[in-house]
Write a structure and sequence with these properties.
globular; Rossmann fold; 7-stranded parallel sheet; alpha/beta; about 375 residues; about 40% helix; 15 strands; two-stranded parallel ribbon; 2 domains; single chain
Length: about 375
Amino acid sequence: MAVYMLTGFPGYLATNLIKEISNQKAPIERLYLLYHPSVKKTADFERDRLVKESYLAEEDVQLIEGDITKRCLGLSSSQSSSLLAEVTHFFHLAALYDLAAPFLPSWRINVDGTRNVLQWLEHSGNLQHFIYFSSAFVSGKRAGKIFEEELKHHEGFKNHYEYTKYEAERLVQQYRALIPSTIIRPGIVAGHSQTGETMKFDGPYFILNLLHLLRNLPLIPAFGRGEVYINIVPQDYVTKAAAYLAHNKPSIHKTYHLTDPHPYTAHDLYHLFTKHYLGREPAINLPLPFAQSALSLKSIRRLAGVQKQALAYFTCESEYQQEQALADLNDARISCPDLKSYLPALVEYYSHQRKDAHKHLAIL
């Protein structure tokens, strides 16, 4: 019987990962969900919803209040000892996922938080597997082919998020002799491939935000040549893969790129989104510096809902190799679907959420 513990609850990936874990053949004895006190109300709600929507018994899903930025995760001595004796599988997802976040908060949560988790787990008496959620973008400004076992580089980073996740992954690798670990590096995570459902409208949704702002123009513009590959993956691919790999010993001490083996270029991606969201095609092409200049204005960024830091991903020519992920997920028939197959679901969900938000504002 497996005893699971997750950080990052009630976040988007953590919540959906739990659903996937509950669908695994391995029996679950207990599930501990570490949450920060600031999100207690949401954690209570999501925990109750999880119990209703899964095969998990209410008594087997327990919320644990804690803080990864504190020693022993902010747990009491008795809590800490009890959990260290029980937990067999630990998933570390808690992080500051924000491209625009300042350095110090990013370091405190992403690096110090991961260090605290590792130092705590070092004293575990029953741990079988530690799964760390990193990011494909620890590659920073590196161009060309990026392999799964590569990490160290001196090319710099596009933002503090990338740098702090890079440093956190270095820590996980340093602890490999002490902790049986697997590193997961997802690409840009979008919504569910079947329903389009998401809790986070970032990443590819910045394109939809921009198109919504431009929708009434007589001619829809595109920006730059768009030759860079943009690596987007649906949420359910990432969570299914992570849940499967967590129960397979051959994955221990490996790093996996959960990325799209056949990504689209920025040019093709923009045209696909324009066609599905607006039913039109871009008619003119403007130089990328034009968009960068416009998005340097806070008023424009606020209207478009686009982070200035997101533009860097349209100019970095990185290609993520995934030989280990393809090989080890093949037996389970888990693979990343083609973006064209689930793009309509993403756009439809986004459109419905916009309509619902508009109705709510109209009522207010």
